[in-house]
Amino acid sequence: MSKKNVEKTLVLFKPDSMQRGLVGEILTRFERVGLRIVGTKMLAPDRDHYYKHYEDIGKLKTRAGDQIFGITLDMMSAGPVIAMVFEGVEAVSLVRKLVGTTEPKSSAPGTIRGDYSHMSYGYADAEGKGIPNLIHASGDPEEAEQEIAHWFSDEELFDYEALHEKFTR
């Protein structure tokens, strides 16, 4: 595979993964599959930062409406997050496969959401609450580029050689 298939993607460890103490276990899955961490930081963004992430880039408010958008921003503001950029061969689709579907109930066993979360859209809607699904992962390569630029400066991303790359690239 050529270097053009090497991508970067954004992963956010959401407040629920932080509060449950699952960051290390989840991070291990990304590293074991051969993804390389090229950027990481812990922060507590304000609502304007999340607005840009979820609406200007992700179009969540446009797709799902004001109520879901507001619930999402409330959930994301419940504590700090860890933002990470991973790099690897077709990293965006690989991370999405590891993460599972957005609704934890529908995520297959063996995926991050399938193993560590369980809530359904129906339950969340009936309770008027958000879905604690542990992490955000970029949806496609174009979104990944926009999200990475929103969360990281060029100076915060690093290039180095990882020993495992002869097996994963």
Notes on the protein architecture:
Strands 2-3-1-4 form a 4-stranded antiparallel beta sheet. The protein has helices at 15-20, 23-32, 47-57, 60-64, 66-76, 91-99, 112-116, 121-127, 141-151, 165-168; strands at residues 6-13, 36-43, 81-89, 135-137. It has 10 helices and 4 strands, in the order βααβαααβαααβαα. The N and C termini lie close together (7 Å). It is of the alpha+beta class and 169 residues long. The chain has one domain (3-159): 2-Layer Sandwich (Alpha-Beta Plaits), CATH 3.30.70.141. The relative contact order is 0.24.
Q: What descriptors fit this protein?
A:
169 residues, alpha+beta, Alpha-Beta Plaits, 47% helix
User: What is the CATH top level name?
Assistant: Alpha Beta
* Total of DSSP H or I helical runs spanning 4+ residues: 10
The arrangement of helices and strands along the chain is EHHEHHHEHHHEHH
Work out the radius of gyration: 16 Å
CATH architecture: 2-Layer Sandwich
Please provide the count of β strands: 4
The overall pLDDT, averaged over residues, is 94
Going by CATH, what is the homologous superfamily?
Nucleoside diphosphate kinase-like domain
Major sheet size, sense and barrel closure: 4 strands, antiparallel
The share of residues in helices is: 40-55%
Order of adjacent strands in the largest pleated sheet:
2-3-1-4
Task: Furnish the topology, listing elements before pairings.
Elements: E1 6-13, H1 15-20, H2 23-32, E2 36-43, H3 47-57, H4 60-64, H5 66-76, E3 81-89, H6 91-99, H7 112-116, H8 121-127, E4 135-137, H9 141-151, H10 165-168
Antiparallel strand pairs: 1-3, 1-4, 2-3
Helix pairs in contact: 3-9
